[in-house]
Each structure stands twice: as C-alpha cells, then as structure tokens.
Sequence to fold (589 residues):
Amino acid sequence: MVTNTISVSETPQVLYALRRADDALILGHRLSECCGHAPTLEEDMALANIGLDLIGQARALYALAALREPSLEGGRANTEDTYAYLRDVGQYRNLLLCELPNGDFGRIIMRQFLYSAFIDPYWRAMMKSSDAQLAAIAEKAEKETAYHLRYTSEWVIRLGDGTPKSHDRMQAALEFLWSYTGEMFDTDEAEAMLQAEGMIIDASVIHDGWRTTVQTILDRATLTLPQSAWMQKGGRSGRHSEHLGFLLAEMQQLPRSEPGAVW
Amino acid sequence: MYTQALNDLPTPHNLEDAEKMANFQTRIDSEDRIEANDWMPEAYRRTLVRQISQHAHSEIIGQLPEGAWITRAPSLRRKAALLAKVQDECGHGLYLYAAAETLNASREALMDQLMEGKAKYSSIFNYPTMTWADIGAIGWLVDGAAIMNQIPLCRCSYGPYARAMIRVCKEESFHQRQGFEIMMTLAKGSARQKAMAQDALNRWWWPSLMMFGPPDTDSQHSDQSTRWKIKRFSNDELRQKFVDATVPQAQFLGLTLPDPDLRQDEVTGNWMYGEIDWEEFKQVIAGNGPCNQDRLASRRKAHEEGAWVREAAAAYAARQVSRHAA
Fold:
C-alpha cells in the first residue's frame, strides 16, 4: 500500500534510536542550510563536513530503529526514509536545541559547541553499551564528534575573545541557547528500562563533565555562563517549537508529493 | 600564503626580453611544466589568473543553484550525496584560488572583483534549479561538460593549475555519474518523474552547449592560449566531443534532446547539432541571465554577513601573535 504518513511502534529501543537519529538529522539539516553561505570557504567546508557526519549518524540510527521495530501491518517495515520523510512534527523526537533556526555564524557555532560538548562524552560512554550495534555506532560517531567539539571550541574562543562586536554576538548566542541545554540530560521511564539492561547510559551522568568543559571554554572566550536555571523541554516527547514544522515542510515536500516514488 | 615567497620578486615585465621569451616557448614546446617561481611572460600570468579565477568563481557561484536543493533532497542518501557534492565544489574553489595565489593574485582581491561584478564566471550557473530533476541534469550535463573542458587542463603548461585539475576532475567524474544516476532513476520512475527529467533536459541542454564558449570563429583568447599550451582543444572541438558522448546517454535514458536538427553524420559518426542561440549566451554573460542578480546578491550577502567573523578571527590571531612575542 502506498502511504503518505506512517505510524511507528515506539518500543523503548525504537524510541531511543529515533531520538538520537532525529537530533543528528535535524541538526545536520540546519548545518546543510549554510552550504554556500558561510563567512569563509574554509568554514563553508567545515560546516558541511559536520552536517555530513551528523546525517551519516542519523542514517545509522534510523537503520537500527528499523531493525528493532516490530513489523507493521502487512509485514511492511519502516526505513530511514519513511522515518525522515513521512513522520509529522509530533512524531519527531529531537531536542529543541537542534531545531532552532541558525541565526548568525556565532549562534551556529555556539549551538554546535553546546551540543558537541554533550554528545562527544555521551558517545564515548556509549561505546561500552551491552548492545553491540549501538556500541559500534557510538564508536564511529565519537571519532566525528570529538572533532566537532574541537572545531567549535576553537571558534567559541576566537569569536568570544575576538572583537567587542564578536564578543557581544557570542554572549547573545549563549543567552539565547542556554535554556535549551537542559533537555540533553533528561531521561524517562522508557530510557530507564534500557539503562537497567546496560544498553544505554543515563545522560544525566554526563552533566557535570559537560558543565566543566563549557565553563573552561567560556572562560577562555571571556564569556559568562548565563544564570537562568529555567530549562525548556518537549522535543523528546514530540512537543516542538514552531520552527520544526517549517523545516519538515521544506524537507519532506518532494517525497510527500509523490507517494511511493523512488528517488 | 602560497605567494609569500613571490612578494619580493621584481615585476616580470622588467626582465622580459627576446631571449627569455624564446626560452620560455621552448620549455612550453617540450612539454615542460612552468612553476610558480619560474620566469613567465606577464601576459601568460595574466591569462592564467583570468582563467583560474573565473574557474574558481564558477565553483563558488556553482554551489548556489545546487545548494538550493540540499534541504529538499528527496531521500537521506541523496541529501548526503548532494551536500558532499556542493562541498566538493567549495573545495575546488579553494584549491583554484590557491593556484591563482601562486601567480600573485590574492583570494580576497579576486573575490572582491567577483562581488563587484567585474569578474566573469560560467554562464551556466545563472539558470535556475526549478525541480529536483535539475540536480540530475546539472550533474549529468554540466559536470559532463566541465569534465570535457577540464581533462585537457590536467596537461596545462602551468604546473599548479594542472595539478589542481587532476584532483578536480576525479571528483567531477564522480559527480557526473551521480547526476546520471538521478536522471536514470527519474526516467524509470512515475510518469510525473519522467516528465520532470525531460523538462530539466529541455532547459539545461542548450546552456550546457554554451558552456564551451563562443564558436571558434569568435573566440578571442584561443590562439595565444593554444601556443602556451594552456588550451589544448578549441571550443568547438570540445563541444562536439561532448555532444557525441551525450547523445547515446540520452537515448539510453529514453529522453529526447530538445534539438529537431540533431542528426548523425554518416561519414564522421559525429552528432550534428542545430544552431545555438548565441544572443542568449551574450545576454547571460552580460549579466542578464535569469539568476545573475540573485547569484551575486547571495555571494555578497554571505560575504557581508561574515565580515564580523573574519574581523574577529584576524583580531584574535593578531593578539595571539603579540602575546606570544611578549
């Protein structure tokens, strides 16, 4: 049957894989928007590179979700493309941080830094997962995210400690993004089950190390950690900002216009 | 960076004389490669700077029409491949600006010329990408035409340019196969997909033929470039090679080339094509193509919006140097 929407059987394992895949895809998509428009050719290539890494990670995680998802009615199975192109906004499970519009280069860098400072140690810890496939995905992803963290750290320092104008822009980016960082460390019952099996780690254990990394880099960048403790959340359960709908409308338009077509 | 060692050299025209010119031509004739620090006629340097910078600009502007479809690519595989491809184009631009730097032309100055509308780039990138099939057509036809043009440049007499082209051609040939595969998928797809592929072919065919430049009878720079072995084949020779290679590919796809006069010459086997609309070509080159304004505006916008980043990076680097010295 040709379909233009899908249902997903979100067992804890599937939900887990989709959350991480959606983070990577949506953030990778945002970075891909910069291609051809970055401040220098070198940065154009670097942002595309990071975007490509993230899209690659998303594909591996969607493939895992498809493997772990119980067969649908009629024996049909979801694929990386049905997950990406045929789910509606409320079915997406990514962090709000990843879907925020790019803004200027400073905000792109700051968003990537805050995420990379979390996801790099996260994947490093996940290399010890009891699930061999997840451990393999983590091992490959960590090599990439280590570079993303290094690249963005250097730019946060350079721009924070550059000119008064760049300093102000970076501080503004940090203030804007800060309340979206708390969601990275959240956990819920579905994930607690997988944690108990040793399949995944508890993201909250990453928090202190993340905070130290962020503080260290911000100090060198002469930037100030925001004081606000209020944290936005909702992406993990499908409650998104207004921005994701526009992103998906653009991304999904073509496959949805020709149900069942091969591209 | 590449040009630092050249900064203190005397200007070449002071040294030009008949003997040096003769030696230079002898080196060219014996297929010797000219390198950055070698003596060269000023006109040779100028010709190369013009050609290499136009090529670099074409890569950077060429990111825009295809880049417009990265966020709309219809599968994750296509999305990753297109992003990687457009990134390659940026890399080619960077590589070529570096080759121009070996001739004492800075990237900043060349980019300023581009943004001021004083420099040329390939006319093909002033056409719009309306549908996904345009991404296939560009890969197949535009990259195909670029390869025809660029393979001989791998033997160009100027070493840094020739070496840059070897790498560029490897990537371009991958892009061309990728584009053909998109066209094949569409041509075998639904009626709507096939119509999309045909429509893209209709729009991109003639502009692709124009990529080889004016007919030999009108080409201004060819004779000297040929003597200097910058150019190995004439515009019309390359155009004919491209048509001969592409016609069977279109037949394989089951698509129709939009040229009622196209026929195969029984004696030579060449595919003879109809009249090219050179007036359209002139208009696009003169800035009146459908996207000339958009392309330059996008380039300027990226440059202006990035100014604070480049200034901050320079300020930070300068401070690091002074801290280090202190």
